[in-house]
Amino acid sequence: MASGNSGIKTNPFIFFLPALLFYTIFIIIISNDVLWGDEALYINYAQNLLHGFYSDPPPKITLSDGPGYSLFILPFIALHLPFIVIRLMNAVLIYLSVILLYKVLVKFVPVKRALFFSIFWAAYYNYLDFISLMCSETLGIFLIAVLIFLLVKAFDPATDSKMNKYLYLAGFALGYLVLTKVIFGYVLLCMFIGVVIIWITKRRVINYRKTIIILLVAFVTITPYLIYTYNLTGKIYYLGTSGGNNLYWMSSPAEGEYGSWFLSPSIKSDTIAFEKRVKTTEKGGALNLKNRSSYITGYEDSLKLHHQKNFEEILSFNGAEKDDAYKRIALDNIHKHPGKFIKNCVSNVGRILFNYPYSYTIQKSGTLIRFPLNGIILVLMLFCAIPTIVNWKKIAFAIRFMLLFAFIYLGGSVLGSAEFRMFTVVVPIILLWIATVTQKSLKIKITGW
To answer: What tens digit of pLDDT does each residue of 47-61 get?
Structure first.
């Protein structure tokens, strides 16, 4: 493990202040008092928590997201602070994620290289999509950075005397990440099963024992929520009601549909009505998630043609039963049309990396700005793949842990309708991996520092 430069004069808190200033100005310029997307949902959840509950009671159970972000904004809602205050917290969270990434990088690579990759992350403009919104992605990014930092501490032999502290903190951070982005709950379960199987044959390896402790602490952290969802639904390890919806759209066998998600339709005058989306003209241009392209004319007719019969069944249920109906129809679609599902998965990879393609959507030139940063990352990921496999045991255990964590998450995301922002959440892990692998196999000359 590289120790970095002990004589470094760079204070990351000061060095990256311009980034914090830019994020703050950007948020102030494009924010307004109008709630968009899931913002109203998170606020409603926070208000519910103030009244002693989270979801609506059965049968209209609403568990679209975990309580992590709603708990985070709870103090702001309780104090009736303006929405702009909550949104400005996104600037602080991204700023702190940059600093935490830098502090981890200097443990493994020289200072200049650590600065290079930290600046890349600070300038990673793709998170400007949602930085001005009250949404869970920015908190998820911060928690990923915290988790990386704590895992490096937990698995560092030099901190073994304090290992319990870091193990428990890392486990709590992982658990809170699950509560914030529930898809990580399935990653947690997969990793726990895998590491227990490995530990059975390698009980003397201390890092596996540490991993089990971290994962167990994470499970303990989410247990109150799991007990709550069990009481609501009668289902074990039930994290939310949105998984079936995502899987349903991914399983669509209709030609011209690429597995992208649509808002569930509503019933109006005994007729199923799909959302009418028109192009907005918000500030921030292509870097504002509100400025999505409009759908092609008549897309509602196509959705009705392909999905009305299914939604006549789905909309007859509520809560967990509705989620089950989505999953039942989706699995039937996958069974009958496996080739189309694979095509949709390939399209999903495109959406995760480059925000393309979306079903029935008018394309726009702003999509092109998605390619440079993630194109660079993708090329470096491919470059790092073989050295990583060949030298797997030589890579620091904390990085291996996070790398498996990230790729299980991305692999699972491909199977359900995903979006561009889902990749952004784990970019700090990807950058840490690339920085450490290229340190041994690729020289980046940085002058002027």
So the answer is: 999 999 999 888 788
**Stated length of the chain:** 449
How far is 173 from 32, CA to CA, in rounded Å?
Answer: 31
Helix axes 17-30, 83-105, angle to 10 degrees: 150
Hey, what are 58's tokens? 């059965």
Question: Quick one: tokens of 226?
Answer: 């799991």
Give per-residue pLDDT as tens, 295-336: 777 788 888 889 989 998 999 898 899 999 999 999 999 999
Please give the Cα distance from 199 to 306 (Å, whole number). 48
CA distance 91 to 97: 10
Single-letter amino acid code for the residue at 359: S
* Chain-centroid distance, C-alpha 184: 8
Q: Give the N- to C-terminal CA distance of the chain in Å, as an integer.
A: 23
The single residue listed with the structure tokens 């039942």 is: 328
Euclidean distance between CA atoms 14 and 30, whole angstroms: 26
The Cβ of residue 408 has, within 10 Å, a number of other Cβ atoms equal to 18
Is the whole-model pTM more than 0.90?
A: yes
Whether the predicted pLDDT of 159 surpasses 90:
no
Taking a C-beta distance cutoff of 8 angstroms, is the pair 57, 319 a contact?
A: no
Phi, psi of 273, deg, nearest 5: -120, 125
Distance CA 244, CA 263 (A): 13
Place of tokens 């002693």: 52
